[in-house]
Design brief:
Helix content is about 15%, strand content about 25%. The protein is of the alpha+beta class and about 60 residues long. The chain has a domain at about 25-59. It has a two-stranded antiparallel sheet with strand order 1-2. The N and C termini lie far apart (about 45 Å).
Length: about 60
Amino acid sequence: MSFEEDFGEELEPVKSKTPASKTPSSGKKSTLYFMSTIGPGEKKEKLTVNDANRVSDIK
């Protein structure tokens, strides 16, 4: 098998993980503040979420 033969195979197209369109937000936005303990020292972090989203969408 030569080097050129390796590139002769057909590859399937890459699927995008980005949504095709943004859905308008229908819920209320909430801002959560928490202390991050990752790394050397604690720091205050901010997370803004829409309460219409499911938990699995936020992860």
